[in-house]
Amino acid sequence: MHFLRGLLLSLLPVAALAAKNAPVDKFTKFQTKQLSSTPLKLDDAIYAQLTSAPRDYSSVILLTAMEDRFGCQLCREFQPEWDLLSKSWIKGDKMAESRLIFGTLDFINGKATFQSLGLQTAPVLLLFQPTTGPHANPEAGPSRFDFNNGAQSAEQVHRWIARQLADRPHPPVVRPINWTRGIAITTTILASITFLTVAWPYLLPILQNRNVWAAISLIAILLFTSGHMFNHIRKVPYVVSDGKGGVSYFAGGFSSQYGLETQIVAAMYGLLSFATISLALKVPRIADPKTQQIAVIVWGGIIFVMYSFLLSVFRIKNGGYPFWLPPFS
Amino acid sequence: MTDSIVEPFLKGNTGRNTRGILRLSILCLIAAAAIASRLFSVILDPWFNFRATKYLVANGFYDFWDWFDDRTWHPLGRVTGGTLYPGLMVTSGAIYHALRALTIPVDIRNICVLLAPGFSGLTAFATYLFTNEMSTSPSAGLLAAAFMGIAPGYISRSVAGSYDNEAIAIFLLVFTFYLWIKALKLGSAMWGALCALFYGYMVSAWGGYVFITNLIPLHVFVLVCMGRFSPRLYVSYCTWYSLGTLASMQIPFVGFLPIRSSEHMSALGVFGLLQLIGFVEFVRSGVPSKQFTTLLRGFVLAVFTIAFGGLVLLTVSGVIAPWTGRFYSLWDTGYAKIHIPIIASVSEHQPTAWPAFFFDLNLLIWLFPAGVYLCFLKLADEQVFVVVYAILASYFSGVMVRLMLTLTPIVCVAAALVLSHLLDTYLTMTSPDAPAEGASDATNGAAKKAIKQDGLRSMRSPLVGIYTTFSKGSVVSALTAYLLLFVLHCTWVTSNAYSSPSVVLASRMPDGSQHIIDDYREAYQWLRQNTKTDAKIMSWWDYGYQIGGMADRPTLVDNNTWNNTHIATVGKAMSSSEEVSYPIMRQHEVDYVLVVFGGLLGYSGDDINKFLWMVRIAEGIWPDEVKERDFFTERGEYRVDGGATETMKNSLMYKMSYYNYHTMFPAGQCQDRVRGVKMPDQGPVLNTLDEAFTSENWIIRIYKVKDLDNVGRNHTAAASFERGNKKKKTTKRRGPKVLRVE
Amino acid sequence: MRWILSFLLLAFLATVQAVSSAGYKLLVVLEELADKSKYSKYLGDLEARGFSISYESPKSDKVALFTLGERAWDHVLILPPKAKGLGPLLTPKLLLDFINAGGNILVALSASQPTPSGLISLLLELDIHIPTDRSALVIDHFNYDTLSAAEKHDVVLVPRPDAIRPDVKNFFKGDGKGGEAIAFPRPVAQTLGNASPLLTPLIRAPRSAYSYSPKDDVDSVEDPFAVGQQLSLITTMQARNSARFTVVGSSELLEDTWFDAKVKRSVGMNGAPAGNEFKTSNQAFAKEVTGWTFKETGVLKVGQIEHHLNETGSEIVSNPKIYRVKNNVSYSIELSEYSWDKWIPFTPPTGDIVQLEFSMLSPFHRLPLKVAETTLTSTIYTTSFKLPDQHGIFNFKVNYKRPFYTNVEEKNTVTVRHFAHDEWPRSWVITGAWPWIAGIGATVTGWVAFVGLWLWSKPVPLKGAKGGKKNL
């Protein structure tokens, strides 16, 4: 048997001839196919043939739905990784010692298979262990890779397959070096450097301008203290519509918020502190008593109203909060 | 009339003395208020620090230093002396011995309980000093101290009995910064050394010292970029860095991190940079040639880049420890959620929503930016520090809830700055008289010329002052109202949110009366009284310290999560079926298993809700044996009722939680009040565990691990025999005979 | 000194205590007391060996195994009753509890009297199976007694058993001359499951034997219950708490008639000629089986366990709670074996050793224990080794479980701590540290010299400075 397989493997290069003489073993056929184009494009018939027992080879099959009308984001994200994996595996395993066949079954060609497997979702990655031969695996059902946490990188899937196919060669995933990206980065860097050198005399005053820095730092502080990082990390929705057509600006609950909500809060903070600054710095510098009087009243009023509004907003978030200021109670 | 009487006390020497006395008494009052506001409820927690302190007091410092704790992390044990920040324990130990020396008999427990409030008083004082460095106005310091004393953001971690590292760390943080500013201003090596000393103390007290380690170099770097390099800067920083690093390396837990881990690299880099710049400055002072200096600048740049490249190289080659996980989670907790579930599972490591900010610092949060803006007025070194601190701290507090603690001081300071400025402006008795146009114009012009080149837009026109008493009165009264509201807010928050201990739950009865739920202590007392002293308790790590402290029994894992694999082992035992879990428990010599179950009471912080974290952590180590997917139904729901997945139903945690639960209810009405679902009438079956104890409200359930069957049956058979159903006699055999082999 | 003392103590105990190491209260369950006469010799032997026997019928209420929750008897001997049940006081659960409580049971089956269902389900619990047909018995056409069972071939003659493994001690080989035979009249065969490691067949049927049930003749010949060596005539089960349980296939084996009966071996399978008639060795064999079951032989006892630090220049503290990594420690354990009426030094059979494990989660060391000294009643095994370089909570563990010997499982927990801060070699001992130390010294001296020079040298007036420079 071993000798026979060795023979077949040695015949692989001339498998075209081998294909002629009548009952050639399934694996050799698929192997020759996938040497030319991997992963194999399957349809129901080939799928059935590929996965029918007895198999003395193992096969990994991705059931996917690439067409736009299915709107399978995950499938499209995973497809390049999948191609990369299969290609590098086959390239790394010319002599097919791992006896692994990569196949892709698109929903278009494989409706029957999807139904027979009772699949509602895609993509699904199935691995069929050999039923005969040295690595024969008694438990018949294919083992299934779950995509429950997002699209997987080729390396992760490779690790999974390697775990499944113990004591067989696992050719590593080789990623082609991304030249374009590298070039882009270098060019941008060089460009920025040249730009800086050219525009330095014009940039310098801006860089040394106190107002600019003050503005930058204040904006940063306002962003952070109004929970922007929370939005960034938790990916909260910008705004949510309440049941009756309108939009609800404020999320109920103490530890949840919307994007717009945080911006409103930031605006309130900004206004409040701006009013304070004016009261503290601008107003005492107003020469004319009348204007100053008015300014004091205006700014003071703004602070009062805004603060009261802020408190009322906070009462939305935290039910039991007892304090409030007029007019918003 | 009154004025004339008060007059002499506010003028000249006597005046200064009176003000000094006033200031002192006010400070003392503030400290008193700070302490008093933290005494709403007193219960000791966390227990590990208390236990460690007791050990220290009992066995002396060196035994504590070399302490190998064989009551936790069974059977690995924990090199406790080398894996904790000893500052807290040593502090209270020192206080204890000092009081003993003064022949004041005091129990170490009382010291531990009252340490946090006491230090909060000191923090207020440190804030006062710090703020005084920032502004000339005398009221700013007092305001800042007052804010710091009662700001909920700080109270949250320093109520009486919350005996945690933060209790003293915040004081050290603020005081170190004060010393740093002082050293920077005076450029004196002595203050720098003092700063280094307190920095060392801080390192010994809290892991958050990294914040200082990065903030001060950043400050220095910014100053250098602003062209503010000066001998003062050089002396103070070099003194601080060299001595401070040496000091920090004395803590076993820190060891050689300051020169190997990349959190500390910024400090090292700035140190090198300063040397170079110092050298350049020296040469420039010698050589006036312009080209030469430009050359030198180029040289500096080159050296800096080379150094940076070398740093990166070392990090990549792994000579310098790669960025630690907790550090990543500081930048983006999303990272932690994927890569280090053990960190993401801690509630303190979640990002902060805006209500939390407002809740902790009410009106300070909007006075804060104004205060920072004020610092731009006269941008001296110390104001730069405030700005840098403000931005950095607000970012980090936004990323992690617990870092709100580091934000609070600077918020208090900034708010105090702007408030005091307001009050100073609006509380001056003298009003300017309406100006004659021409003169004002002239002065304006002059002022404009004076200030044009740099300075803020709002400062362009000259200062006149406030004219009418009405505006003064209105503004001041409004501010007073806000401040009073702030005080009310702090009191309310402290009494409601931050004074509820973790081990005792309070609930309101329908009639409004308060009902205390004390299951935790009940259960721990049961363990203490009914189990062998060396009975190993397996529970999820949240309860490790409490079991160790209150029940005094060895645990497998606890809140000091130093060994992820061991925690994953417990997670695996909890999330696998009995057949898998039992050998694990045998191997780890587990005697009892403790689970927290809130289903009866509606207590949401129970183990079923934490269960997914156990699964994830276990999956991180055994991806083939534990799969998170299997705990979700086909439609991706996490269910515990009849529709739960088989894996869920067979998991040990599920069985232990719901064992015999259905017997509490009449048929068909059994329900889980947390998940709010109806439970099946047929409860799970336990073969390898015996129910040993269930607390009054079923919050804590303790199970005993059965021994191997005496006559060699498997547990399922033995249990079914106990239940009274006999084995079927082997009737006509089918299939081939199994032959007995010896 | 300590050894001598302990051994004196042991000797004292040995003299006062009952003849069996597990107590002397024996309950014999038999239907009516008239049957006593049948077993008079056997029971006489037991009484002679010091057992106080009380006879009860299974129906009587004095047969209760537990009084006030305490075990009422040390040993129970159940002779086959006529009735089909054993009554409410001997349910399988009670019998099992009796075993779990450390009591020993010897059950004698008989093909003539059907085995009570209670017993059967008890045997099933222990993974011992007997033929479904209660009257089935073992027949061997090549090893039967020509005198008593010339036609029916149902008195099987079996030689003394060999040890099941070469490295297991054989308690049942008599004087070891061989050539003697035990007569099993109408035995009930048992087969053993593979699951339980606690089961050991004491004596198996000859290769040519098979189980035959007179009722369904054909069927049992077509598909016999079991054949040959698979048939166990006497089965023993030793529970984890070392309680012993023995099933004797044929109760008649214990009867007087067969104790001194003469038998004559039939023609063997390989045409071995029929030997001349001789006396069965049932009596001696019964004594050995009963003695083993009632813990008169094959009982191990752990005397003193001691471990201590074995460093030079450290005083010996016995059984400390804590060690340090890489300490040298020595461990010793004292083992005695009980044989019939006295404790004797235990020596494992040839090809077997007693091992010590030093384990945390898994063994870090597994060492053979060597004999250090032998007293009159015990052997002291000892070994000394270097602790692993791993701190934690470890166990000294001696786990010696062999067929026919009571289980020895001794665990002594110790803590192994890490190096204390002052137990490392000092810096000047480490050659690699010398350059750094030299560096420190150089810096200090350099600094001091510089300061000295600075303080000593008088500042030169500026205009003179040039001259000064020239001089240098």
Automatic annotation (TrEMBL), chain A:
Coiled-coil stretches: none
Pfam families xrefs: OST3_OST6
Predominant location category: endoplasmic reticulum
InterPro entries hit by this protein: OligosaccharylTrfase_OST3/OST6, Thioredoxin-like_sf
Any one GO BP annotation for this protein: protein N-linked glycosylation via asparagine
Subcellular location(s) per record: Endoplasmic reticulum membrane
Keywords: Endoplasmic reticulum, Membrane, Signal, Transmembrane, Transmembrane helix
Membrane-topology annotation of the record: Multi-pass membrane protein
Key word Transcription regulation present: no
Sequence similarity: Belongs to the OST3/OST6 family.
Function: Subunit of the oligosaccharyl transferase (OST) complex that catalyzes the initial transfer of a defined glycan (Glc(3)Man(9)GlcNAc(2) in eukaryotes) from the lipid carrier dolichol-pyrophosphate to an asparagine residue within an Asn-X-Ser/Thr consensus motif in nascent polypeptide chains, the first step in protein N-glycosylation. N-glycosylation occurs cotranslationally and the complex associates with the Sec61 complex at the channel-forming translocon complex that mediates protein translocation across the endoplasmic reticulum (ER). All subunits are required for a maximal enzyme activity.
Protein name (Swiss-Prot/TrEMBL): Uncharacterized protein
Species this chain originates from: Hymenoscyphus albidus
TrEMBL record, chain B:
Segments traversing the membrane: 21-44, 83-99, 111-130, 136-155, 167-200, 206-226, 238-259, 265-283, 295-321, 356-377, 384-401
Any one GO biological process: post-translational protein modification
Biased composition (Basic residues): 725-742
Major subcellular site: endoplasmic reticulum
GO CC annotation: oligosaccharyltransferase complex
Subcellular location: Endoplasmic reticulum membrane
UniProt membrane topology term: Multi-pass membrane protein
Keywords per UniProt: Endoplasmic reticulum, Glycoprotein, Glycosyltransferase, Magnesium, Manganese, Membrane, Metal-binding, Transferase, Transmembrane, Transmembrane helix
Region described as Disordered: 719-742
Pathway membership: Protein modification; protein glycosylation
Enzyme class: transferase
Role of this protein: Catalytic subunit of the oligosaccharyl transferase (OST) complex that catalyzes the initial transfer of a defined glycan (Glc(3)Man(9)GlcNAc(2) in eukaryotes) from the lipid carrier dolichol-pyrophosphate to an asparagine residue within an Asn-X-Ser/Thr consensus motif in nascent polypeptide chains, the first step in protein N-glycosylation. N-glycosylation occurs cotranslationally and the complex associates with the Sec61 complex at the channel-forming translocon complex that mediates protein translocation across the endoplasmic reticulum (ER).
Family the UniProt entry places it in: Belongs to the STT3 family.
Protein name (Swiss-Prot/TrEMBL): Dolichyl-diphosphooligosaccharide--protein glycosyltransferase subunit STT3
Organism, scientific name: Hymenoscyphus albidus
TrEMBL record, chain C:
Membrane topology: Single-pass type I membrane protein
Localization per record: Endoplasmic reticulum membrane; Membrane
All copies of domain OST48 middle, residue ranges: 315-458
Entry keywords, A to Z: Endoplasmic reticulum, Membrane, Signal, Transmembrane, Transmembrane helix
Biological pathway: Protein modification; protein glycosylation
Ranges of residues in domain OST48 N-terminal: 25-293
Signal peptide extent: 1-18
Keyword Endoplasmic reticulum: yes
Cellular component per GO, a single term: oligosaccharyltransferase complex
Residues passing through the membrane, by range: 433-456
Major location (coarse): endoplasmic reticulum
InterPro entries: DDOST_48_kDa_subunit, OST48_MD, OST48_N
GO biological process: protein N-linked glycosylation via asparagine
Entry similarity comment: Belongs to the DDOST 48 kDa subunit family.
Role summary: Subunit of the oligosaccharyl transferase (OST) complex that catalyzes the initial transfer of a defined glycan (Glc(3)Man(9)GlcNAc(2) in eukaryotes) from the lipid carrier dolichol-pyrophosphate to an asparagine residue within an Asn-X-Ser/Thr consensus motif in nascent polypeptide chains, the first step in protein N-glycosylation. N-glycosylation occurs cotranslationally and the complex associates with the Sec61 complex at the channel-forming translocon complex that mediates protein translocation across the endoplasmic reticulum (ER).
Subunit structure, as described in the record: Component of the oligosaccharyltransferase (OST) complex.
Protein name: Dolichyl-diphosphooligosaccharide--protein glycosyltransferase subunit WBP1
Organism per entry: Hymenoscyphus albidus
UniProt lineage: Eukaryota, Fungi, Dikarya, Ascomycota, Pezizomycotina
